[in-house]
UniProtKB/TrEMBL annotation, chains A, B:
Catalyzed reactions per annotation: D-sedoheptulose 7-phosphate + D-glyceraldehyde 3-phosphate = aldehydo-D-ribose 5-phosphate + D-xylulose 5-phosphate
Signal peptide extent: none
Note on how the cofactor is bound: Binds 1 Mg(2+) ion per subunit. Can also utilize other divalent metal cations, such as Ca(2+), Mn(2+) and Co(2+).
Binding annotation for substrate: 31, 268, 362, 389, 466, 474, 478, 525
UniProt site positions, description: Important for catalytic activity: 31, 268
Source organism per UniProt: Candidatus Manganitrophus noduliformans
Keywords, alphabetical: Calcium, Magnesium, Metal-binding, Thiamine pyrophosphate, Transferase
Protein name, as recorded: Transketolase
Amino acid sequence: MDLKEHDLDQLCINTIRMLSADAVQKANSGHPGTPMGLAPLGYLLWTQFLKHNPNNPHWPDRDRFVLSAGHASMLLYSLLYLTGYDLSLEEIKRFRQWESKTPGHPEQGHVPSGVETTTGPLGQGFANGVGMAIAERFLAAHFNRPGHSIVDHHTYVIASDGDMMEGIASEAASLAGHLQLEKLICFYDANQITIEGSTDLAFREDVKKRFEAYGWNVIGPLPDGNNLAAMSKAIQAAQAETERPSLIIVRTHIGYGSPNRQDSAQAHGEPLGEEEVRLTKEHLGWPTEPDFYVPEPALAHYRKTAGRGERLEAEWQRRFDAYAAADPDLAKEWQRMVKGERPEGWDSEIKKYQPKGATATRRAFGEVLNLTAPRLSNLIGGSADLAPSNDTTQKGLGDFLAGHYEGRTLHFGVREHAMGGALNGMALHGGVIPYGGTFLIFSDYMKASIRLAALMELPVIYIFTHDSIGLGEDGPTHQPIEQLAGLRAIPNLTVIRPADATETATAWRLAVARRKGPVALILTRQKIPLIDRSRSAPADQLEKGAYVLSETEGRAAEMILIATGSEVHLAVEAAQALEKEGAAVRVVSMPSWELFERQPVSYRTAVLPPEVTARISIEAASTFGWERYVGGSGAMIGLNRFGASAPGEVVMRELGFTVENVLAHARPLLNAPSGAGAGRRKGS
Amino acid sequence: MDLKEHDLDQLCINTIRMLSADAVQKANSGHPGTPMGLAPLGYLLWTQFLKHNPNNPHWPDRDRFVLSAGHASMLLYSLLYLTGYDLSLEEIKRFRQWESKTPGHPEQGHVPSGVETTTGPLGQGFANGVGMAIAERFLAAHFNRPGHSIVDHHTYVIASDGDMMEGIASEAASLAGHLQLEKLICFYDANQITIEGSTDLAFREDVKKRFEAYGWNVIGPLPDGNNLAAMSKAIQAAQAETERPSLIIVRTHIGYGSPNRQDSAQAHGEPLGEEEVRLTKEHLGWPTEPDFYVPEPALAHYRKTAGRGERLEAEWQRRFDAYAAADPDLAKEWQRMVKGERPEGWDSEIKKYQPKGATATRRAFGEVLNLTAPRLSNLIGGSADLAPSNDTTQKGLGDFLAGHYEGRTLHFGVREHAMGGALNGMALHGGVIPYGGTFLIFSDYMKASIRLAALMELPVIYIFTHDSIGLGEDGPTHQPIEQLAGLRAIPNLTVIRPADATETATAWRLAVARRKGPVALILTRQKIPLIDRSRSAPADQLEKGAYVLSETEGRAAEMILIATGSEVHLAVEAAQALEKEGAAVRVVSMPSWELFERQPVSYRTAVLPPEVTARISIEAASTFGWERYVGGSGAMIGLNRFGASAPGEVVMRELGFTVENVLAHARPLLNAPSGAGAGRRKGS
């Protein structure tokens, strides 16, 4: 080979650069520049500092690595392959191709292992890192004992200029500084280039000063992202920090080594081009052929990482064995939590839960939360500054605050988006059961994080209260309308809107038990009646998503009233009135479309028999999507407008959520010839 | 009266405090504490500094006032009433009641005048203020001439601790600092209390330092929010600043004057209670009866504001008259823009637009944008750092940057949410036509702002490109699935997904012409064929939301294929294949559900005749909601899963967007007995 003499470091670094350039070129799609600029840092971190074992990517005490700049995926794939994870060079050659293990952006759970989180939407990875660092501190506080440190790892994040601009990262950084998460180390890859050009076009703030304002330990800017010694020293300083998260600012050069693309916006998101790849190889003293060339000495050097990882894990295992010998019960609990299992009998108190009467479902939630909290010692969550309203506090179990990491209730501040990202990070870290609350309307602020939880199928629980115009006086800015439809449209997310305290208890049990995919509980602010279960189906039927709550005795239903949440009691009352008028009416409580859709067809048609076309949906929200269950001959009572400020019961009444209005919709349908309903829609 | 002697200032200030406490108490709902803490600042600003005329709230050169802390609405309502806006004391007594002019949070357009923007969701008002300041600088640069300054006003924002925590405010602050919006003056009401308690629980950053890092002029913290002299001095210093936006930090006391609630979280969101209201009145030397007491001297003093405003506007009018005399054409243009009118013939070039062939609709958009830009001199917008991808640049018309405020293209940076909030502020300010672009997937990041644009019915235009899995390699993190459904569910938002370049041109024309309510254009990344208009309906039919694009000649349709955007050509091809098999097929292009819903029933049933129940919807997105048009006997070809990373055409093919798959769905429907279709749903 005509490879010039390089020192080994440089050889290893350029291997990443050229794998990245080649992969993007072959795919004719992708982001070559950032991996090329970050190659020295990636090499240094993964071979010298990151505590990981490529042979066991699931080692619980490994350091977490988050590539928040997910577009630089080839950096991560290069490192995974080179250090010996289960990712072949063949897969790198299939970058961005159908069913390859190397998708355009890193996908957790898609690559078999080694990708800690799915990134790409900027800022999310940063917030995930904060969540991981929270989980680490929590578990360390719960499980470490004097002389026994079994949870003790760092979370490393690589963030880009774009990450730094996103609000979610600002929120998460403020939270991390507040919580003094000293095991969090973030690299800010300051390459000064964004898609539109120089960062001077849109971003001239002093990031160092900003992070100091958040209470971070800021190191740098290091002027040269190729200076391994300086970066080593910075990482050591960050590791030695004991009170603050660290930000290491590194000035890198996007497309480093490309004679005509380095430091250009083109290097961000376009292949270099065949000719420029060749020129880059020449410039870096790299053989121009073959593509995807990996020098043996480089690979051999990288692969030593596995040996280092094995040793590190073995050391940890010895520590853990000593810990297990000293406290076998605690060790078992730890193992159970790491596996994501729930303890025996964790829900026994819920099963005994006897609500006393009319109550807001948020209050019922607060009660069942606190019935289960003592038995779920890794349940950790809170609210984005709405705890008294969301009822998300685990009473008597402490606040999670700097220096009080054993506390169970988090105070996220008015930072919904960071909460969403941090919850994802906590779930990804494992060992904890995370939940977070805000008003349903503010789920809008964290939508991008909810989507990523759904994409990764993370067991995150959302507590969204104040779920309709029924919240009243706060008015249309706070009254959700389209949020239910929006959440229901997200694949893999289970939305549950319970109809009373008993359904709420079942919903919470189901949410905690569920270990795959996020669950959103949609809860009322206002008191709603307790369904009389002596006269109707039991609340555990909620598990099926929809069920027949009541029907006219001894007669086949002529009409079905389908309702969710606070509107179910309205359906029950309307059905009673219609029965008095001689009609046979079925009431279906439908707390969760997603759970219902997972039932067999036989069950679904039993609940909603196709021959009964006189159907009315009742939900104080947009009717968007309800045609699915109502069909072309039914009616929908909902809200295709924004709400209004007034006491909740007034708004409900004025906007049509009354028995009278249900009757007004029902009577024409009952009188219409079968199957020839008006298909009317309430657009009140 | 047993009112103790007060100086007039104190009397005026306490009037706000007690009106607020009384109104919240009477409503038994609301936020008394913040208005009580902010009363001195509100009084000072509105009577001494704010350039406004209560008798003409629409005076174009007025200062803008934004209460970002919207929960403190009683501060604003008190000031509106006291200074003589069209808001009576009776309305204040009806605070938070049905159809009152004093809803829970300030609603722009609801109160007749004086409420510049709808606030409540935190951080939004702050970003609105940044947008208003952008519009002011833009119009000043365009219209002011040496010796003639007709656009010269400040934007004042009052922000809370919660605003400071929200990511959107961080983004907007960074942008404002970058743009050096020196006419923006923000007060940070540091009352150190949030809903969960002391800000120490979640928020201990150094806000002063953070804003300095953004490039702001930070004044304070002023230790005493009751010290009028100190606040006056601070405002004067901020007004004198010529290079940076200003943040004035004021330490206030929530619930000031309430002996038992001051400085408590309870004072934030609960009525004080009758007894505590009484104690507060006593403590402040206020008569305990009657409620809603307004001392004559205070009212008289406040009402002088109108006289001051009249003088200020008259001065401005003289300047404007001189300006109009010197340059009548420019004056006329300015008047036209302030009215929101479009110039004669602005769209003449679009009408002539002849696309050359297959093109991405984002590229077609870029072309029509640049055809219209020269004739729309107040069209201003840009992208959240995706301009080359969104094609949002107005070529040759300059960048809007610090010191270059005449530029037409904004660089929002990777700050989607701030972009959304700023666009709202620009539209609210008036005089400009604002638009903003990002990938459709990142509409999630700005959802809360889009909703507020819809709630306020603002003429904001969104350019959302990369609208489906057709974007290809970037993979599921970037491929929208549920975004279309989510946007369609928002009341008042018009979503348009054009099928080719010709529909795109019509869509842009419609978006610019529309002056009420936001419009979202949903555009492809990938090239799509040009519809052969010689063989089908003209593209201006897009205005009706859906139209018959083609059908089997001379025969009544047996089947309707309904498609949007990039899937329309698939429907056309499938229809041709089905015709060859002997079927009579209609193709409906349905770019906009909302526009279609606004058509008369006669038109809608003409396009989608009820008797044709064999219908298939084709859209590369969630099928959520499509039952509305497909009915119970049709089929939906869509995506109820996340996408995948691979070249766009591969992903499209693998996930079912092929002629073959449409045929596979169509044939059983054509063969089924009429009205007894399978009701199948494609969950590919």
